[in-house]
Fold:
Amino acid sequence: MATAPAESIPWAPELQSPWQGFAIHQDQVVAQPPDTTVLMTSEFCPFAALAYGPPEAPLALTVQPHPEYHRALFETLAEIRLKPVVPGPVLAGAMDSLSTPVDPGPWVRTIVEFFKRAHARRQPAARTG
Structure:
């Protein structure tokens, strides 16, 4: 389970509660870069999601978990990518965790809202004549 920080994120109100999702990655951010806001953290990934730039209107997002994954995709990836390299007990724990319900909606909506806001900021001023 990943959680958002206690402080409010005005442009991402749905991230104020714990979020359960799929994560499958080898590399991760191990130190918080300057000028970033931590959006999500977990036991295994302290910087699971970051916003880069001004906290009220970030310029970029990074998200370590995969809100776009569904259970069947994760199961397939686990079989293909994890089984050959991950110790059996660790893989068994990951597979057991798949019984926990996952709702990608909060992150999907947050990412869509981020791109909408970024697009609106990049629009040139209205031209006359």
